[in-house]
Each structure stands twice: as structure tokens, then as C-alpha cells.
Design goal:
CATH topology of the largest domain: Rossmann fold
Strand content: 5-15%
Number of domains: 2
Largest sheet: 8 strands, mixed
Strand order of the largest sheet: 7-8-12-11-10-9-13-14
CATH superfamily of the largest domain: Response regulator
Shape: globular
Radius of gyration: 24 Å
CATH class of the largest domain: Alpha Beta
């Protein structure tokens, strides 16, 4: 028995405690030699029928187990909370930190030596990594993979992105409700996450770019047999990682976060990556600030995928996937370790692109300088962000009068009023949708264009809020304004008619109201009383940090790698 292994404290002792740990496990049919000192590998599964993106993970878990057994380990699967982005109210983001707590405490409390994280839907992958980083065992990720391309009337359609377009077309009278409903069944044709470069596929891509998975993890479709083979190989690799003591902290470095920021720009990734990378870094005790995302500002967009382009993740896979992107980004990437114990650039060595209209090159990119931009100014003292690759170029430098919606209910009740006093130059402002305000910071930042403007052919406007935006969405949308309105940030003081200046290229977001007037408004401002007085939602509101800190709970930042010494019997 290797006494250095963590599982030895559970299964290696020849006393009453060891008897109890082994005997109860044996009721599942484990033979004696399962506890002879071989590594115990946890498979942390977010499978759920309420999370359609992750509905294929039960099958992938079985393939991971095959690899673990083959490599001489013992696989033990355990469930954690599953966050269905399209299904949960008020928003899945409210529960990301709860999932992270579930993952952290499950890994810490059980006698496992390494862990395979099975996730996919937007918040599951970051929540799992946050929890795992706080314990720091050998860790590797298998993503659920994207759905097959959506199909409707002979054309490819993308989840989320085309939903927004179809919805606006109905509002403009350009699409019938019958056509809208007919597209519904063709959108989601297989298991898997959104097949656009939404948050789920973004996080899978960044996981690969950070070396936290095996190569090709990001883009293989969920129903592709090669993903099952990848899961099998991942099971083999985690056993080797335990033998090598290749802990998560040896892979999750400052350099790997910088590579994620660069890769996010190159793939046209979701703005939500900002929140998740900041939170994961906080757990890993790595200094990462909102300003660091400027590292990607001048990185060109290489991947022509929705919402920034026209193709889908299935096309990205067939073009060569992330290994090609890593290959073409090699001169920009930082040296960084991976779960294979090799430098990240080795993931791209020899990678061949099979469709240059899907994956472009640095010297001839799809779009230049397309990374996320960090905005600062008196309207966002702690920062805000915008995604230029999904915005309208002519609106990236814009000044206009604000029309303010005090909360989401105000927006829904009034956005389609025929007498709404807005025009194409108006800047729509939404309050009350930050971490504390909603609570949970929902994906409502891409506010709908007022109907009266949609009918005039207006497709985009500048929109400003303390909310998030779906990774599948598009538009000139300023997000994550910090501090949020409900925390007393300057956003709370904006009134309809105020002028706002956006200069994304210069990184500015300014409220053009003099300091004396703002001071008067500040004196009159009162925080909204929360409707949440119990349970996790109250805990969240009381302890959630602002967007520039990743919206983690303040008492969860950092890690605890000390061994658990107290027995339960």
C-alpha cells in the first residue's frame, strides 16, 4: 500500500475505520484488490435530464471508467449539482458558486486521489474548476461537446444566435410565428451544448487552451464516437497524473490564464469567460484582474463561428478545432504546462487546417483586433466590458441620450410601447441586474431593440447594464458595469435624458453629468430592499463580490489543501 496516496487514509488502514470504508464500498461488488493501493479516481458528473447540454455525460462517464480500469485505477462516479442554463430561474449564474461549493466539499470529503470533471453547460465547467482548484488534486476535464448543427429549411441554424435573430424578425413582421415555431425542432438535433461559440463551447475551448483537457476536447460533437474515445483516454491519463503527482496547481498557472485570454479573443469567445476566469483564478490564488483581459484586445479573430461569424462548432471541429487555433497562435502563447506534462504549444504541433474559411491565420484574420475591451470611466469605476467582434463598428464610438429601465420588469413592460421616446442614437440603460440586484447577474444585457425601431429597420443600438449577455448573443452591448446599481454604483444614478459617451477603442465609458448633480442624486439614493430573506439566495446576496472580482462569494476565495484527519465514526 502506497501510504503517500490520499485514498490510503480511507482504504489502507487495517483497523475499524478501514474495515468500514472498504466494507461499505464492497456492497457495490468491488473485489478485495480494488483496495490494494491502486489510485481511486473520482468522476465528478453534472449529468441531469434537467440540463439538456449535459444529458450525454452519463455515457461519457462509462467511457472514462473504462480508461481508469485499463490504467490500473478504480473509478468512482459521484453526482454534483447540475446547472441548466436554459432551464433554471432566476438564472443559472446564481448557482454557479453553490455548484463550486458542492464540488469542493465532495472532492475534499471523499477518499479519492484524482478527479475527472464532466461538465458542459455554461456554468458547470467553471463551477467545477472553481471547486477543484480550492482542493488541488490531479484534475482533468472532459466536456460534453456541442450539438450537431441545427437545420431548418435547408440551412444551418445556430442555437441562441439564430433564436435572437428569429425573435427580432417576428417582432419586425419579417417572419411568421408559424415559421418561428417550425425552426424550434430543427435547432437542437442531438445531445450536447450550444453549437455556436456560446459560453459552453467557449469554456470548452479555453479548457483546452489552458491544457486542462486532452487535445480536441473543445469541438468534437457530443454524439461523435471520437468524444467517447477521448473520454476513455482521459480515464487512462488521470491515473498517470496521480502517479506523477500532477496536481491542478501545476497546470493552472498565471501563464495558462493569459493563454485563455488570448485564445478567447481568437475564437470570438463569450464575455462570460471574464467572470469565470476571474473566479477560477481567485480560487487558485493567482493574481488576475479585469485589466488583464486587455491582453486579448489586439489579438485578431481567427475562428469564423457564430455569433461573430457564420459557421458552427461542428464545422470548427471538421476544420481542425482548437489544435489548429493553438498552432496558429503559437507565437502569441505563453509557455505553460498541461495535463499531458508538455507545453501547450505541443497541442498544436502538426495540426492541419481543413477549411481556411472557418479558421483563419494571424496574418490574414477573419477580423482584426477582436478581443474583449475593458472600459473604465465615471460610469464604471471598477470596469465594464464590450465584445467588439459581435458589435457594430459604427457604434463602438458613440455618444447619445440614455433611456433608463430601472429593472427587468420595467424593461419588459415598456420596451415595445409605441410612444417610447427613443431613436437610433439612444443608449438603452438597464439597472438592477448585477450580482446582488437580480440576484445572480442574468443574461439580459442584450436588451431587445424597441419594437418601433425594429419596424424601422434598426438592428443594433448601444446598450449598457450591470447584467451579462449570452455567449450566443450579439450587438453593441456594454456589460458587467461595476459596481452594479444595487451596490450603489454610479449606474444607479443615471436618469433618462443623461448623455453617455462610449469609446470602446479608447476604453472609456462616461456619464456626462457634472459632479455636483451626481452628488445630489447620491444623497437621495436609497438601496432597494432585497426580496430574498432566507436560504442560499440570501447567503449569495450577502457575500457575492462584484463583477470585476468574478462574482464569487467572498469567503470562498482561495484554497484549503490540508488533509482531512477527523473520522466520521
Amino acid at each position: 500500500m502506497d501510504k503517500k496516496r490520499r485514498s490510503a487514509a480511507w482504504y489502507g488502514k487495517l483497523d475499524r475505520d478501514g474495515f468500514i470504508h472498504r466494507s461499505w464500498m464492497k456492497n457495490q461488488g468491488y473485489p478485495d484488490h480494488a483496495f490494494d493501493g491502486r489510485p481511486i479516481i473520482g468522476i465528478c458528473n453534472t449529468w441531469s435530464e434537467l440540463t439538456p447540454c449535459n444529458s450525454g455525460l452519463r455515457d461519457l462517464a462509462e467511457k472514462v471508467k473504462r480508461g481508469v480500469w485499463e490504467a490500473g485505477g478504480v473509478p468512482v462516479e459521484f453526482p454534483v449539482m447540475s446547472l441548466g442554463e436554459t432551464q433554471m430561474r432566476p438564472t443559472a449564474m446564481l448557482f454557479r458558486n453553490l455548484l463550486a461549493m458542492d464540488v469542493e466539499e465532495s472532492i475534499r470529503a471523499y477518499g479519492i486521489d484524482g478527479v475527472v470533471l464532466l461538465g458542459g453547460c455554461d456554468k458547470t465547467t467553471p463551477g467545477q474548476l472553481m471547486g477543484a482548484a480550492s482542493v488541488d488534486l490531479p484534475t482533468i476535464v472532459v466536456s460534453s461537446g456541442p450539438m450537431l448543427n441545427g437545420k431548418w429549411r435547408g440551412q444551418d441554424i445556430g442555437s441562441g444566435t439564430d433564436v435572437w435573430k428569429f425573435s427580432e424578425a417576428v417582432r419586425a413582421g419579417e417572419m411568421s410565428i408559424q415559421e418561428f415555431m417550425a425552426a424550434e425542432s430543427g435547432m437542437s438535433r442531438s445531445k450536447g451544448v450550444c453549437m455556436t461559440m456560446g459560453t459552453a463551447s467557449t469554456m470548452a475551448s479555453l479548457v483546452e487552451a489552458m491544457g486542462l483537457s486532452l487535445p480536441t476536447n473543445a469541438a468534437l460533437p457530443a454524439v461523435d464516437a471520437r468524444r467517447e474515445a477521448l473520454a476513455h483516454l482521459t480515464g487512462r491519463r488521470i491515473v498517470e497524473m496521480v502517479a506523477e503527482d500532477l496536481k491542478l496547481s501545476k497546470v493552472l498557472t498565471r501563464q495558462s490564464f493569459e493563454n485563455a485570454i488570448i485564445a478567447n479573443a481568437a475564437v470570438g469567445g463569450s464575455t462570460n469567460a471574464v467572470m469565470h476566469l476571474l473566479a477560477i483564478a481567485g480560487r487558485a490564488e493567482i493574481e488576475l484582474a479585469l485589466e488583464d483581459f486587455e491582453l486579448g484586445a489586439e489579438i485578431p479573430l481567427l475562428v469564423n463561428c457564430m455569433p461573430s461569424g457564420k459557421y458552427l462548432m461542428e464545422d470548427f471541429c471538421y476544420a481542425g478545432g482548437m489544435p489548429v487555433v493553438i498552432n496558429r497562435l503559437a507565437e502569441k502563447l505563453r509557455p505553460a504546462n498541461t495535463v499531458l506534462g508538455i507545453d501547450i504549444c505541443a497541442y498544436g504541433e502538426g495540426a492541419e487546417c481543413f477549411n481556411d474559411d472557418v479558421i483563419f491565420t494571424l496574418d490574414k484574420p477573419f477580423k482584426p483586433a477582436a478581443g474583449l475591451r475593458v472600459l473604465k470611466g465615471n460610469l464604471a469605476p471598477k470596469g465594464a466590458i464590450i465584445k467588439p467582434s459581435a458589435a457594430s463598428e459604427h457604434l463602438l464610438q458613440h455618444e447619445g441620450e440614455a433611456y433608463v429601465f430601472e429593472n427587468i420588469e420595467d424593461l419588459k413592460a415598456n420596451i415595445d410601447r409605441d410612444d417610447l421616446e427613443v431613436d437610433a442614437s439612444t443608449i438603452l440603460v438597464l439597472k438592477g441586474c448585477g450580482p446582488k440586484g437580480y440576484p445572480g447577474m442574468p443574461e439580459v444585457g442584450n436588451m431587445p431593440i424597441p419594437r418601433r425601431l425594429v419596424e424601422q429597420g434598426i438592428k443594433d443600438m448601444v446598450r449598457v447594464s450591470d447584467a451579462r449577455m449570452s455567449g450566443t448573443a450579439f450587438g453593441t452591448v456594454v456589460l458587467h458595469v461595476a459596481p452594479e446599481a444595487n451596490a450603489g454604483g454610479p449606474l444607479a444614478l443615471v436618469e433618462t435624458g443623461d448623455r453617455i459617451r462610449l469609446d470602446a477603442k479608447a476604453g472609456l465609458l462616461e456619464l456626462l453629468v457634472d459632479d455636483a448633480e451626481l452628488a445630489k442624486r447620491r444623497a437621495d439614493w436609497l438601496p432597494e430592499e432585497s426580496r430574498y430573506t432566507r436560504g442560499y439566495a440570501k447567503l449569495y446576496i450577502d457575500h457575492v463580490m462584484q463583477a470585476d472580482r468574478g462574482a464569487d462569494l467572498d469567503f470562498l476565495v482561495g484554497k484549503d489543501t490540508q488533509p482531512v484527519t477527523r473520522e466520521s465514526h
